[in-house]
Amino acid sequence: MMTDQQDNQTAALVEAGRWLLAQGTEFKFGVVALEALPAPDRIEIAFAGRSNVGKSSLINALTGTKGLARTSNTPGRTQELNFFLLAPQRNDGAAWLVDLPGYGYARESKTKIAAWNKLLNAYLRGRPNLRRIFMLVDSRHGLKKNDLAMMDDLDMAAVSYQIVLTKTDKLKSGALDALIEQTQTALQKRPAAHPEIIATSSEKNQGIELVRAAIASLVDLSELGYKA
Ligand code: GTP
Ligand code: MG
Question: How is residue 137 annotated by DSSP?
């Protein structure tokens, strides 16, 4: 049960998140090598998960812009680390949102997968401004082996991550509660896991405001000129 005070805090963050994500987002560049990463001069929030889980769709739903991040029926659409600047007019930008390529796409060549894993691991370990990873998990499938491997890496590197369940519109009613409970249990002994799980449908615009609120909780809003 939430107390009234928690309710108020959540409502305030939802409102702040709505404001923040309404400030606009600009695609800046795609990065294929560590040397090309922008200076770590503002906070960074990345979206990770298996190929086709809905990372690019979630970024579009969060920002309310359909074609901002490219989505596709074909797994492996996003092949670079794509950098989006959130609220570009506010204090030179509130945060980097980073759309990561998906993992677990079997049809790529072994060399390509190895090169990609190397880049991703180096990025995850060496990015001092990386405040949180949203780890997207398809609500029809739950945590898979490569998700657990990713979480192992993040726990080791002490990079904070939060599970976001995707495509809940495709679930039968009742199945979601069981999945959330099961996922919560899987997170219990993981030091870098944020305890709160967010269930979303980018298609039906559900839970999106809670991801916005989570982003707002990571940003210094007063620096951006936000008055609660
Ligand atoms: P990669 O870049 O290949 O790793 O994929 P991605 O994780 O960015 O996934 P993307 O956003 O491209 O979405 C993959 C497919 O899932 C697309 O066909 C989307 O339309 C679909 N999809 C994404 N989110 C939802 C959702 O909430 N509900 C439903 N029903 N479909 C979704
Ligand atoms: Mg993508």
Answer: E
Instruction: Tell me how far apart the alpha carbons of residues 103 and 48 are, in angstroms, rounded to a whole number.
Output: 8
Distant-in-sequence contacts of 177-186, Cβ < 8 A, 24+ apart = 179/139, 179/142, 182/142, 183/137, 183/142, 183/143, 186/143, 186/148
Distance CA 203, CA 54 (A): 10
For 181-223, give the secondary structure using H, E and C. Answer: HHHHHHHCCCCCECCCCEECECCCCECHHHHHHHHHCCCCCHH
Rounded to two decimals, the pTM is 0.94
Residue 3 one-letter amino acid = T
Residue 101 CA to ligand 2 center (angstroms) comes to 6
Q: How far apart are the first and last CA of the chain?
A: 25
Pocket test for ligand 1, best of 50, 51, 52 (most atoms within 8 A of CB): 52
Tokens of 47: 């979206």
Say how many C-beta atoms besides its own lie within 10 A of residue 88's C-beta: 15
Q: Give the dihedral sign, CA 128/134/136/137.
A: positive
Tell me which residues have their CB closer than 6 angstroms to ligand 1: 49, 51-57, 71-73, 75-78, 101-102, 166-167, 169-170, 201-203
Summarised one tens digit per residue, pLDDT across range 31-85 is: 888 889 999 999 999 999 998 999 999 999 999 988 888 877 766 666 789 999 9
Whether 47 contacts 59, CB under 8 Å: yes
